[in-house]
Amino acid sequence: MALQIGAVAPDFEAETTEGKIKFHDWIGSSWALLFSHPKDFTPVCTTELGALAKLKPEFDRRGVKLMGLSVDPVDRHAEWSEDIRETQGAAPNYPMIGDTDFNVSKLYDMLPASTSGDPATRTAADNLTVRNVFVIGPDKKIKLVLVYPMTTGRNFQEILRVIDSLQMTARHRVATPADWKQGDDVIIAGSVTDEEAKTIYPQGWKSPKPYLRIVPQPK
Prior knowledge:
Helices cover about 30% and strands about 20% of the residues. It is an alpha+beta fold. Helix 2 packs across helix 3.
């Protein structure tokens, strides 16, 4: 069964471009974004890693640590990093896991448990399911799972938007509507009774339907 939202993110130890890490310890009290790639020196992933490097200050501002993954070894990540810098204008400025034993890919249900052998003999197509995004909270639970095909680059502005929603709704008892962005109105969570809502929102709310209670975004 695939990992589900609300499940504890599997812990692991791994070699990365910034040394050996134990994942839960590395997360600490932060949020984390774990994003995976099927193979080094692949075209779409090259653009993604450069884009994410440029956006790292935005993730830092939100208290989100970045961790990449590919089944190729760490020394190849270092070589790939130079290509990314040359073609994208920025090299990865976050750790990249060398998942050469497929341990993390299996733990996160990105590859079958039966996967084995030399990663160098596998093609990107063999690893096409290793193109996922996991957002993990400080409680080490999975908050978001996205799975992309190899031919579609990831939209990191959308990932930032979702993180903004996740972090706000973790602090306040609200939900965000379709296409919400920072500053837009939000919805009072269904778990909040009208009596509780009157205390939280003494100014009231818009309610086109009893179950749809709209208020300004909390400060």
